[in-house]
Design goal:
There is one protein chain. By secondary structure, the protein is mostly helical. It has 2 domains: about 15-105, Winged helix-like DNA-binding domain superfamily/Winged helix DNA-binding domain (Arc Repressor Mutant, subunit A, Orthogonal Bundle), CATH 1.10.10.10; about 120-265, GntR ligand-binding domain-like (Four Helix Bundle (Hemerythrin (Met), subunit A), Up-down Bundle). The protein has 12 helices and 2 strands; from the N terminus they run H-H-H-H-E-E-H-H-H-H-H-H-H-H. The chain has helices spanning about 15-25, 35-50, 65-70, 75-85, 100-115, 125-145, 150-160, 170-185, 190-200, 205-215, 220-235, 240-265, and strands spanning about 90-95, 95-100. The protein is elongated. Mean pLDDT is about 75; it is low at about 1-35 and about 265-269.
């Protein structure tokens, strides 16, 4: 088995913030009663850094361009930039503009990882929800960004899963590496690292869920087909279908964990 820590995500295409803002349409979905406008801008820029669309050292567009894209006032943009600077995410240089900071980008992953690691066992559902959000987006990004190498790696672990019906340890490793490889294919190091933290924390739960699933007739074949469908969607460059299939896969796991907790105590990790 290939050590996932040896994986070296290939550099994906550069995506500009302007494209991200335009596609997300965040300026059109502001809810003034529940969230201040500058917070929407703040979260969009922060999330663009987390998912790899913005890189360390990259310069943000001018205030007037951001205001136009978000369809908000320049005052709201200034407030968002100030919040980003206070948070250590950007550096505002006089007469030069605003730039993504290198060291703080790494801090984002450390802070989020620390929160996950500190989670108690009774937060497994919350962790699974975070995993669903991260992995479904990774699947969608992989459908757009995956290289031939990435697709070959995903297929390799899918083939290993096919041969592992009667070998639980081999099947678990192949299953985990299938998901890791999709995260790698998204070409976002931060998302990849976050997923590793989550999955490592939940490994016992994942093992218990597999035991419960495969104790039922035909469930191995059904689970294998779920993974095959995800792989096909990614290979076909269909991000919406890849996202939907991955989300459903993880929602099903959440339901099965609930069943285990109610009546399958012997599967509890």
């Amino acid at each position: 088995m290939v050590n996932i820590d040896d994986f070296d995500p290939m550099v994906g295409p550069e995506l500009t913030l302007l494209k991200s803002i335009n596609e997300n349409g965040l300026g059109l979905t502001v809810e003034p009663k529940t969230q201040k406008i500058y917070q929407v801008v703040f979260e969009s820029i922060r999330d663009s850094i987390i998912n790899g669309e913005l890189k360390a050292g990259q310069k943000l567009p001018p205030e007037r361009d951001l205001a136009k894209r978000f369809q908000v006032s320049r005052t709201s943009i200034r407030e968002a930039l100030m919040a980003l600077e206070i948070s250590g995410i950007i550096e505002i240089r006089s007469s030069e503009g605003s730039f993504i900071r290198q060291i703080e980008t790494k801090t984002l992953i450390n802070d989020l990882s620390a929160a996950i690691i500190k989670a108690e066992d009774n937060m497994v559902y919350e962790m699974l929800e975070v995993r669903r959000l991260i992995e479904s987006e990774c699947a969608a990004m992989a459908a757009v960004r995956a290289s031939s190498y990435n697709l070959a790696r995903i297929r390799q672990y899918l083939d290993e899963m096919t041969k592992s019906e009667h070998n639980e340890e081999s099947g678990l490793s192949a299953d985990l590496n299938f998901h890791y490889s999709i995260a790698q294919a998204a070409n976002s190091r931060i998302l990849f690292d976050l997923m590793k933290v989550l999955v490592n924390r939940m490994k016992g739960t994942i093992r218990a869920t597999r035991c419960y699933r495969f104790s039922q007739p035909n469930r191995f074949e059904e689970t294998l087909n779920e993974h095959k469908d995800i792989y096909i969607a990614i290979s076909a460059n269909n991000p919406d279908r890849a996202r939907s299939l991955m989300a459903k896969h993880l929602i099903d796991i959440r339901e099965e964990i609930a069943i285990i907790s109610l009546g399958k105590k012997n599967y509890n990790p």
